[in-house]
């Protein structure tokens, strides 16, 4: 079967410049864009095969904490709720960091800290910030 019609000539569309190629001359009786006849010519190479190209899946950074304020020293459990992540980098805003997925961190000095989680996968990187 071959693709017929459409704006592109490629990917199992067997056409010729003079309009006499297989996909140009075979019937598409059900108008689904595919001819009903199998193309069977020896020594033919399809340089543009039909393939399914999936959309890339990007990571989405997100997390929660068991506590976000309190007296010093403050022990915080960070829970990763990110989507599609394969690696994690936590910057706790106090000079410390972690690559654990769900770290526990102790803030010893009084202050406000901006925690930044950066998640990554093969398609990209995303970050999320929260104040502690």
Description of the molecule:
The structure is a single chain. This protein has one helix spanning 22-25, and strands spanning 63-65, 74-80, 87-91, 97-98, 104-107, 114-121, 124-131. It is mainly beta. The strands form 2 sheets. The protein has a 4-stranded antiparallel β-sheet, with no helix packed on it. The longest helix is centred in the N-terminal third of the chain and has 4 residues, at 22-25. It is rod-shaped and about 80 Å long. The N and C termini lie far apart (61 Å).
Mean pLDDT: 83
Oligomer: single chain
The major pleated sheet works out as:
4 strands, antiparallel
Strand order of the largest sheet: 4-3-6-7
Helix coverage percent of residues? under 10%
Count of discrete alpha- or pi-helical segments spanning 4 or more residues: 1
Tell me the total number of β-strands.
Answer: 7
The gyration radius over C-alpha positions equals 28 Å
- Span between termini: 61 Å
Counting helices, strands and paired strands, the structural category is: mainly beta
What fraction strand?
25-35%
Q: How are helices and strands ordered from N to C?
A: HEEEEEEE
Which stretches are poorly predicted, pLDDT < 50 over at least 5 residues? Answer: none
Overall geometry: rod-shaped
């Amino acid at each position: 079967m071959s693709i017929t019609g459409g704006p592109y000539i490629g990917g199992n569309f067997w056409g010729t410049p003079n309009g006499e190629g297989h996909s140009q001359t075979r019937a598409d009786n059900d108008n689904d864009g595919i001819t009903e006849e199998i193309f069977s010519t020896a020594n033919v190479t399809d340089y543009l095969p039909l393939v399914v190209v999936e959309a890339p899946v990007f990571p989405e950074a997100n997390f929660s904490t068991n506590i976000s304020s309190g007296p010093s020293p403050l022990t915080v459990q960070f829970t990763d709720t990110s989507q599609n992540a394969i690696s994690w980098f936590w910057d706790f805003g106090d000079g410390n960091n972690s690559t654990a997925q769900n770290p526990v961190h102790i803030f010893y000095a009084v202050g406000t800290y901006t925690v930044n989680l950066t998640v990554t996968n093969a398609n990209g990187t995303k970050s999320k910030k929260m104040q502690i």
